[in-house]
Design goal:
The structure is a single chain. The chain is an alpha+beta fold. The chain contains 16 helices and 19 strands.
């Protein structure tokens, strides 16, 4: 991140942390008042009162204060307590309101309370101590904590309030703990079930261990009877005497080891989700190195404050990791940053209460803060896991939709390709049929003149001496049939060359009138022999063209020859040229038989013929005109004539060399 972004994240984090702490302080003080006098004139039954201001440290000797029956039920090692582990105060309650009052000690385990000579202690089934008091009564109270190694037992957490009020607070604490236990076990089962379904996701096992550590310690606090069993103490990560060993594990040591496990699990999960490292070392290495220093302090019996500072430092390391991952993993980092905010604010609040910076109040009376502190991260990690799985499900859904779309497109593509192949096959079959018919026509058209040549040759041989005039006529027929066969063969070879793109066109400048005049001059003898009028109409004949005159004349010649062939005596064929912009339109119109509508779309196809002709002329014409960047079209009515229209560019810089 840039320096500006880093500074903004730091300021936002500090502002959110300050706001959260302020809210906790407000809630803590809202329903709780610190009682500073031992004989208050009045008390509000809707409020609770913290009595830490009245408590004075004393050396406590139960053997001289309690009755023999009470003392006999207490462990001998807890009969005498030093001043740092015991407190005393006196309290005189006002007569009004005349309701039952009671003292409430949240951390009652390992605690002894002596009230007016009566000894009270927490049962094995519950942690808090409720001591009933009468309105207007006087109470001499002595409280000792038999396990002074636990700093929570030196908090002087003693509250006064109406009995119904204190019992409701007691129930709230129980509900809160079992809620945490239920949530933690549900998350534990959720993670284990996910891991069982997908064992490749190793982080699910780490998350299950994290959920277990939260639920185990909270269960240890919620069910005090478990503290008296060594094996359950060990399994629930509590303060234990190791099974089979007389050595007693110090509370600070076990607490520190538990926090180490929790922080290592968190750092492993953050690294798994965010892939963040600090320089060349990992967060877990930093955690272990700093833990070693604090562990030595715990062994030297002054580990509480180093432990608190170490935990705050680990929270700071968590913030560094999450803030650095925020730009790349906004959603996951935001969820974990919220958990970090709640966790650190409660940690600071709890530490401030222990140090006396913040007065004891409602939150400490009603809630077990340590259980809450460890719950937020577990829930946040499960949310992140669910987001991750949801993202995978979304990707799977998107992939599924994509595959469905691909399948639909594939089906459509296959259908289109099948239709295309079917059409291509149909066209190939039609082309093959056309070729077959074409070859039949060619063979037929060649066989006729060849047979004529063979017959006329014999007749010439028979009559050349006896009847020279008759022989001369036979020779003319031979010449005509030879010319026809030569023309047919020329067209066949030209068609093959056009199809194989084996013709080079050489355009030269010429006028349209010159081109049309040459066509008319060539076709005029055939037209006159059939009694057909062939003429060029006035128009834009002076329009310049750039064409290969030989091939273009042949293309137009084919049209005119077809017109002569299909026209009757006395009809006319008209050629005209008209310029339209940069195009010259040449029209060849006859008054002949016309072309039937069903055959009209096919007349330019190669090998197609609607008569006994070769079927090559118009296909050759179309390809020659196309090679000159022109186009040809036709309009026809049966028995009314046909008009072919040829469009050519007025000036073409270059022609396609491949035709």
């Amino acid at each position: 991140m840039s320096k500006r972004k880093t500074l903004s994240v730091v300021l936002m984090s500090l502002a959110a942390l300050a706001a959260m702490l302020l809210m906790l302080v407000k809630i803590n003080a809202h329903l709780c008042i610190t009682l500073k006098t031992a004989a208050p004139s009045e008390l509000d039954e809707s409020m609770i009162y913290a009595l830490d201001a009245l408590m004075q440290p004393i050396a406590m000797d139960l053997t001289q204060s309690a009755s023999a029956d009470a003392v006999s039920s207490v462990s001998p090692t807890a009969l005498t307590l030093p001043a740092e582990c015991a407190y005393a105060f006196e309290l005189t309650l006002p007569p009004e309101p005349a309701i039952p009052w009671c003292l409430y000690i949240p951390n009652g385990q390992n605690c002894l309370a002596l009230v007016n000579g009566v000894l009270y202690s927490a049962s094995r089934e519950q942690e808090a101590i409720l001591i009933p008091l009468s309105p207007g009564g006087h109470a001499q109270v002595r409280i000792g904590y038999t396990y002074a190694g636990d700093p929570n037992f030196r908090n002087r957490l003693v509250y006064l309030g109406a009995q119904r009020r204190m019992e409701s607070i007691f129930r709230i604490g129980g509900y809160q703990r079992f809620f945490i236990i239920g949530i933690s076990f549900a998350l534990l089962l959720h993670c284990l079930s996910l891991y069982a379904g997908k064992p490749s996701e190793k982080y699910l096992l780490l998350l299950a261990f994290l959920a277990y550590s939260t639920s185990a310690r909270t269960l240890w606090n919620a069910l005090p009877a478990l503290k008296h069993l060594q094996l359950s103490n060990l399994l629930l990560l509590g303060t234990v005497n190791l099974p089979g060993s007389p050595y007693t594990v110090d509370y600070n040591v076990s607490f520190l080891v538990l926090k180490l496990i929790i922080f290592l699990l968190r750092f492993s999960l953050i690294t798994e989700f965010m892939s963040i490292r600090l320089g060349g070392i990992s967060s877990r290495q930093i955690c272990l190195a700093s833990f070693a220093v604090v562990f030595v302090c715990c062994l030297l019996d002054f580990g509480y404050y180093p432990t608190q500072l170490w935990m705050l430092a680990m929270h700071g390391l968590e913030w560094v990791l999450l803030s650095r991952s925020l730009p790349r993993h906004k959603r996951e980092s935001s969820v974990l940053l919220l958990a970090w905010l709640l966790t650190l604010s409660l940690r600071l609040f709890d530490t401030a209460c222990v140090l006396g910076v913040i007065s004891h109040g409602f939150i400490e009376a009603a809630f077990k803060i340590q259980g809450l502190i460890e719950t937020f991260y577990t829930i946040a990690f499960v949310v992140v896991v669910n987001l991750k799985f949801a993202s995978k499900f979304q990707e799977a859904d998107a992939l599924s939709h994509s595959l469905e779309e691909i399948n639909r497109n594939l089906e459509q593509t296959v259908s289109e390709r099948t239709a295309s192949l079917t059409e291509t096959c149909r066209q190939l079959n039609a082309l093959q049929q056309s070729r077959t018919e074409f070859m039949s026509n060619i063979v037929h058209n060649l066989k006729s003149p060849l047979f004529s040549l063979y017959g006329y040759t014999d007749m010439v041989l028979d009559t050349i001496d006896s009847d020279p005039e008759q022989a001369k006529r036979f020779l003319q027929e031979i010449n005509r049939n030879t010319a026809y066969a030569r023309d047919l063969i020329d067209k066949l070879f030209l068609s093959i060359r056009l199809e194989s793109r084996n013709i080079a066109f050489h355009p030269i400048p010429c006028l349209a009138s010159q081109l049309l005049t040459q066509v008319v001059s060539t076709s005029l003898p055939n037209a006159e022999a059939k009694g057909i009028h062939l003429k060029v109409l006035p128009g834009d004949g002076d329009t310049p063209l750039s064409v290969d005159v030989l091939y273009m004349r042949q293309a137009l010649q084919n049209i005119v020859d077809n017109a002569i062939r299909h026209s009757e005596t006395g009809t006319s064929i008209r050629l005209s040229a008209q310029r339209l912009g940069d195009r010259l339109v040449i029209a060849i119109a006859d008054e002949g038989d016309g072309i039937p509508p069903d055959r009209l779309p096919h007349i330019f196809e190669r090998y197609y013929s609607h008569s006994k002709s070769s079927g090559l002329g118009l296909s050759i014409t179309r390809e020659i005109i196309a090679a000159h960047q022109g186009s040809i079209s036709v309009k026809s009515r049966v028995n009314q004539g046909t008009t072919f229209t040829v469009e050519l560019p007025v000036c073409v810089p270059a022609l396609r060399a491949d035709g």
